Structures are given as C-alpha cells and as structure tokens.
Sequence to fold (347 residues):
Amino acid sequence: MSTAASRPILAITCGEPAGIGPEISIRAAWELRATINSVLIGDAAFLAMIAEEIDPAIKLVALSEQAFKFSGLPDFGPERVAVIDCPFSVHVRPGVLDPRNGRAILKTLDIAISGAMEKAFDAIVTAPLQKSTINDAGVHFTGHTEYLAEKTDTEHVVMMLATDRTTPPLRVALATTHLALKDVAAAITADSLSRTLDILQHDLRARFGIAQPRILVTGLNPHAGEGGYLGREEIDIIIPVLAAAKAKGMLVSGPYPADTLFQQKYLDQADCVLAMYHDQGLPVLKYASFGHGINITLGLPVIRTSVDHGTALDLAAAGLGRADHGSMLAALNAAAQLVRATAAVAE
Ligand SMILES: NC(=O)C1=CN([C@@H]2O[C@H](COP(=O)(O)OP(=O)(O)OC[C@H]3O[C@@H](n4cnc5c(N)ncnc54)[C@H](O)[C@@H]3O)[C@@H](O)[C@H]2O)C=CC1
Ligand SMILES: NCC(=O)COP(=O)(O)O
Fold:
C-alpha cells in the first residue's frame, strides 16, 4: 500500500471544525498534492463547502469510512484530494465550539490511527482540536499525544516541537506532556526521564538520521536548583539519570538553567534540547518560528506530525483567509520527509 518513495499517503485529521483546522488542512493538502497523497478526514459536505469558498478549482473526492475499510483507498491521482467522510452531529458555526461534535472529532483520529496501524497511511498529520470540547463531550482527553499513545498501546511517548527556520534547526522535546503545573515535579521520575532520553536517542537516529544525537537537558527549577537550595530534582533525579545515559554512550549534558540555555553558543552544539515541561520549552520555539514550526510525537509505532498552534477560534470566527497555513505545510512536508528517512534507515 505504501508509496513512501514517491507520494506518501498522509491522513490529515481536520481538527476542531469551528477553528481554522479545516481551512489550513484543505489549503495545504491542495498545494502539496503533486508530492503528497493527502487524505482528509472530516465531514465531507462541510469540507466541500469550505473548499468551494477557498477556491472553486479545488477538487475533493469523498468516500465513506465503510468503503475505505472494505476496499481501501482508490487511486485518485494528484488532481484530486480524497476525503474520508466522518459526519458531524450538528451544524458548525465558525468560532463557536459545540461539544455535540466532540465524539465525531475524536472519531477522525480513530480512523487515522487504525489506518496508520494497518499501513493504509504512511503517517498521520493532525490539525488542532479544542481539547476542552472533547472533555465537554464526556471523553477525558488531554491531547493528541496522550491519545495516540493510548490507542497504539505505547507506554511512553515524547512530544517534540521543531523548526528549520533557525540555524541550526531547533528541536525542543519535553519530559512531560499536558500536565497541570502542580503535577509536573512528581511526574519527573528517574524511570520516566531515562525512557524519554532513550526514545529521543532512538527516534533522532531512526527518524532523523542523526547518528549520535547531542541532547542538552534543562533543569526543572530556577538556576537548575541552585545546588539544592531551590529544589532537589536536579540532584536527586536529573543528574543521576544523565550520568547513567552518559555511561551508555549517549551525548547528553546538563542540567542547564532553562532561562539561559537557549543561546546560540549552546544551540550550535546541540541536536535537541530536552525541557522539563510544556511552558518551559515551547515558548522559546514558538517565539522563534510561530506558524512555521511542527510538533512530532516520538516513540509511537506510527509517524505523527502536527502544527505548532491551536484552533485560533478568533480567526475562524472572522472568516476564511485569516489563518496562516505555513505550519500545516511544514507538518505535511515533515511527515513526508520522516516517512522517507525512516524507510531509508530501515533498509
Ligand atoms: N495540536 C493541537 O491540537 C493543539 C490544540 N490546541 C488547542 O487550541 C486551543 C486554543 O489555543 P490558544 O492557546 O488560544 O492558541 P492558538 O494557537 O489557537 O491561538 C493563539 C494566537 O495565535 C493566533 N494564531 C494561531 N494559529 C494561527 C495561524 N495559523 N495563523 C495566524 N495566527 C494564528 C491566534 O489568532 C491567537 O491570537 C486550546 O484550547 C487547545 O485546546 C493548542 C495547541 C495545539
Ligand atoms: N502546545 C502543543 C500541544 O498542545 C500539542 O498538543 P497535542 O498535539 O498533543 O494535541
């Protein structure tokens, strides 16, 4: 099924329909149709309406989930973009969240995940969804990252955001994912941190072709704990884990104070920074490249990339044409590149 070498097949979940996800998904899939075989997953009638408004020349062709499951994906060629129909429960009003569509949004992800696990898709690319809407629909949901881990039976995954708009490219991985700040310290255990480093090392090699990844690790506390006077996580957990990783031959260093680590002289010597939590690492990357970065979930049995932004309900409410689809283009191109790089490393 896979056409990794030529035109990889990427499942795109169109995300929260009241946000900018459908628009950026259609624009990016259409623009890249010559090199990427995108398969949009969402409400086909709704997507057709948006496509018509963006540009009547855009050609979408819909198939039902049943047809996809029983007969697979027909070859629609590069002149049309396929849509797997996943109908919403209620009419969508741009900018207005409706939890009654929450379960259908989640179903788009389920179709993408099972299709990728069965190798009908080479990778998954997700447009942003509103995490609160899924919860309001009655399903506990903290993020795609955790949901993908659960649905693929993966015990441990790593969230990494990346941009090639800097020199060298900046990659920021996180030791924890979507957690309330009060729960972060307890989640950083020797076991979870060493698993995170192992996954980083493995995926930077297998998916990015970096033979000996150099990983700079932040501390958790201000001034990396100030020798224990501002917290003991560095002394009790991070330093011993880094020592063990170095003993295994990994090129890790730290813990560095997070507020001064992001300087060119350090980043020039690094393939990746591992930050301890969401708002420690991501603001730096988003400041460097917001709207053009990507989010990659490492450690999964499938390739998944996403955009570096959220649903932007404010823009969706204002009408089509306001959102920048640069990050969606980057996420699609990165997924295609990861498909090719992974195939090359496996050979
Ligand atoms: N991968 C995902 O599914 C993600 C989903 N989210 C969800 O998005 C929701 C809203 O998040 P916010 O923190 O408000 O961030 P946001 O990224 O949606 O918006 C923050 C600001 O950036 C602007 N912006 C965002 N994307 C843009 C684009 N493509 N072009 C131009 N301007 C853009 C918005 O107009 C707004 O001013 C959250 O509640 C969260 O659930 C957030 C991040 C990732
Ligand atoms: N800020 C990045 C983010 O929240 C990613 O969330 P998700 O991809 O796990 O849904």
Observations:
- The chain has two domains: 9-153+310-334, 158-286.
- The mean pLDDT is 96.
- Residues 143-145, 282, 295, 306 surround LD2JLWAY (ligand 2) (CB under 6 Å).
